[in-house]
Write a structure and sequence with these properties.
Layout (H helix, E strand, L loop, with lengths): L7 H11 L4 H5 L7 H8 L7 H11 L4 H4 L7 H12 L6 H18 L5 H17 L9 H11 L6 H16 L6 H11 L11 H18 L5 H15 L5 H15 L3 H18 L2 H19 L1
Length: 304
Amino acid sequence: MEKEKMTFGEFIRTLRLERRWTKEDLCGDEACLSVRQLTRLESGHSKPTLAKIEFIASRLAIPTYQLMKYYVALPQDYLDLKYLALRLSAFGQEEKLDEMAACVEEMAERFYDQLPEDERVIIWILRCRIRMCRGIKPATRTQIFDDYLEQVQRRKVYGINDLLLIHVYFLACQLIEDLLEEPFYRQMVDCLLEQDQHLKIEEWFILRDVLIACLTAGLQYGLAYKHREMLALLEQMMELTQDYQKKAVVYLLEWKCAMMFRQDVALARKSYQQALAFSHVLRDTYLRQQLMSEWESDWQEYGK
């Protein structure tokens, strides 16, 4: 078959075999492209993202433009819905979760067939996140999820989709006993504390949410590793962006860390009072009730 008439998968497979390369040769350390992902690309079962096209071109030492004809940009309407779903905040409020779910389902209904595998995984992740925010344990992890999680572990710099994957993993750790392992937690914390340097400032809210989920999982598992540094980064990002949407939640985490890890009841009480004051400013009675309930529970367990 003439190369000009080949599909993307057929084309890169031909180039790979011309070099007498195995899939492992092309993928290298699998930080950017795993063998399983390459298999799905070559078989035509998934579409390439721009990042994967650029990586494959560099590995094959060919100009990127030779592969660009196979790239289809993500629809702007899809990106707008994805951003909206990520920006919506819900502190256990069903109406907000319903709004997030509506965004995600519209993404799936309108665009799923057009999307590369990476974005299809994100739709699955966002659905999982909404279910877990409702307290529903996630279904059995898929091979594709594990494939992407393994890739993330090999990276030092995370993209938006990587952060969403890490976020949903930490949410799962809060619902599934013994899922979180301390070496993995420490590795993720070390990397997350560096990610603000690699993201646009308008993307910091995604890192913020991941740090909140990370700290929450650490509290549940009794892991105090670098909790002060994570809280400090959260405060810094909120001040620099003037985005205080999750300020009360950060105060909540501050009081929990003060109680559990430092036995500092005075600091915990101060953070609790600041969280209550902020909920009053927002006129969010639901949030205020949740904070009071959390404080009462923590006081009974740690404050006396």
